[in-house]
């Protein structure tokens, strides 16, 4: 294993944060990139990374890693350090207010212009050329803040990978995945290995989150060149939602790490007998069909349904109770679907999103991700 330290721009004299990447195997074959806790307060991924590094070290010592695997066990030192009055605030940078998982720079047009004259009829050669140019563009992109330097570092480590796994979690949730629609054929086996109940699909959900910044360059280049050159979907990039924020146990993390290793072995990055593809326990649905449940009033929040329930349109999921008037407001599902995530807070503000139900029909438009 090679350990590389990546210093970020110093935000103030006397301070310096860094990202640390762990590199297993060798370059020249397939590459997988895995990062944990881009939202600094989402901790299940860090424990999965702890178990992954143990398994990967043993596999490397046995000479079984046939590709390159890069692991960033803590992807957000800025967010990890943000506390206010004992509350961990790891989703938004306090300086800018920006979500750590949004606004990754778009290099599609610049790279297309740089390489167009060199593209040809060989798809593999086109992939190699585009990856090399993309990495050069990422490394050359200007940054002048600590947050921008963190984004550039993460993209420089991941932009040339065949597989990108971004480990997150929800508040209280089932195991579920987010990926772009062109990635679904390659993602479906991963969903099986992880035992994911749900994969939410979109093509450009808005605000350029990390996973889409890695995968969407390929279908955008194919569209840009209008089919004149063969350009495959060369990156499977997936946001892996490792259940809920409190699901931080060795039992779950060890199993999740093993499942990721099994998937990488199935994909050929790890030598040995190819594991059997597990049965599917979930399905794919449009992200535009994932319906947020909002509370129109403030009050004490109590849920009547647990995550994992299949619900019908109009079915009551929760009550919001006004402690002064004793008025009870029912929060109902707008669609038939899977009740897959809910908040862990039990006081709702007016307009607060408190839960999500995944339907099968695309009903929403515009930006599809939450704040």
Tell me what the structure shows.
The chain is α+β, with helices and mostly antiparallel strands and about 375 residues long. The chain has helices at about 45-60, 75-80, 110-115, 125-140, 145-160, 185-195, 210-225, 250-265, and strands spanning about 1-5, 20-25, 30-35, 70, 85, 85-90, 165-170, 170-175, 175-180, 200, 235-245, 285, 290-295, 300-305, 310, 315-320, 330, 335-340, 345-350, 355-360. It has two domains: about 1-280, Aminopeptidase (3-Layer(aba) Sandwich), CATH 3.40.630.10; about 285-360, RNA polymerase II/Efflux pump adaptor protein, barrel-sandwich hybrid domain (OB fold (Dihydrolipoamide Acetyltransferase, E2P)), CATH 2.40.50. It is built from eight helices and 20 strands. Strands 1-2-4-3-7-11-9-10-12 form a nine-stranded mixed beta sheet, with helices on both faces. Strands 8, 13, 15, 18 and 20 form a five-stranded antiparallel beta sheet that branches. It has a four-stranded antiparallel beta sheet with strand order 17-16-14-19, with no helix packed on it. Strand 16 (about 315-320) and strand 17 form a beta hairpin. Helix 1 packs across helix 8 (about 250-265) and helix 3 (about 110-115) crosses helix 4 (about 125-140). The model has no long low-confidence stretch (mean pLDDT about 95).
């Amino acid at each position: 294993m090679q350990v590389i330290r990546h210093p970020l721009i110093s935000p103030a004299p006397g301070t310096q944060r860094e990202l640390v990447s762990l590199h297993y195997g060798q370059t020249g074959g397939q590459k997988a990139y895995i990062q944990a806790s881009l939202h600094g307060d989402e901790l299940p991924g860090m424990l999965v990374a702890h178990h992954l590094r143990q398994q990967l070290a043993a596999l490397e010592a046995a000479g079984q890693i046939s590709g390159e695997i890069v692991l960033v066990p803590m992807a957000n030192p800025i967010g990890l350090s943000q506390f206010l009055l004992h509350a961990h605030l790891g989703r938004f940078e306090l300086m800018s207010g920006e979500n750590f998982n949004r606004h990754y720079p778009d290099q599609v047009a610049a790279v297309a212009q740089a390489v167009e004259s060199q593209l040809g009829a060989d798809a593999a050669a086109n992939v190699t050329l585009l990856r090399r140019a993309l990495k050069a563009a990422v490394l050359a992109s200007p940054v002048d803040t600590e947050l921008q330097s963190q984004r550039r570092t993460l993209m420089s480590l991941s932009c040339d990978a065949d597989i990108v796994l971004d480990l997150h979690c929800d508040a209280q949730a089932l195991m579920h995945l987010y990926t772009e629609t062109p990635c679904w054929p390659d993602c479906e086996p991963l969903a099986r290995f992880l035992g994911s109940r749900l994969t939410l699909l979109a093509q450009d959900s808005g605000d350029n989150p990390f996973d889409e910044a890695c995968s969407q360059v390929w279908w955008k280049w194919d569209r840009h060149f209008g089919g004149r050159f063969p350009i495959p979907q060369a990156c499977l990039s997936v946001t892996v939602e490792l259940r809920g924020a409190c699901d931080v146990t060795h039992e779950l993390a060890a199993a999740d790490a093993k499942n990721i290793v099994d998937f990488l072995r199935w994909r050929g990055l790890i030598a040995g007998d190819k594991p059997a593809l597990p049965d599917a326990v979930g399905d794919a649905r449009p992200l535009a069909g994932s319906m947020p449940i909002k509370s129109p009033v403030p009050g004490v929040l109590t849920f009547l349904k647990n995550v994992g329930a299949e619900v019908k349109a109009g079915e009551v999921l929760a009550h919001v109770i006004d402690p002064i008037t004793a008025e009870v407001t029912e929060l109902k599902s707008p669609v038939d679907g899977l009740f897959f995530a809910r908040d862990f807070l039990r006081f709702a503000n007016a307009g607060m999103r408190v839960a999500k139900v995944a339907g099968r029909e695309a009903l929403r438009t515009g930006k599809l991700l939450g704040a």
